[in-house]
Amino acid sequence: xxxxxxxxxxxxxxAALRRQVEKLGLSIGGEPVWAxxxxxxxxxxxxQEINRVGxxxxxxxxxxxxxxxxxxxxxxxxxLQPHPIKPGYFVESVQIxxxxxxxxxxxxxxxxxx
Length: 114
Hints:
Blueprint: H1 7-23, E1 38-43, E2 50-56, E3 63-67, E4 73-82, E5 89-99, E6 102-111
Antiparallel strand pairs: 1-2, 2-3, 3-4, 4-5, 5-6
């Protein structure tokens, strides 16, 4: 993998994360910002391939993105807002995965502690 992560790919990933939030009727504004991610190379313990792992931290929310050597993507970004139609639940984060041309995603919900 190259040491520079393609900004166009980054915009696709960030937009997909925001769309998952918007599908719930919520907003995280312009977050995440691709340029704010800090990347390191990590060896996959199973395949021994080098993956790029990025982290967003230091702002209101935390997130990670893994760019696998085969081109797949997995990203998760905090939302931390009450679920708009499920009382007693909040949206902890959203996740996306797949190839950049066909990213799928879902929300991670958590129940408010009683």
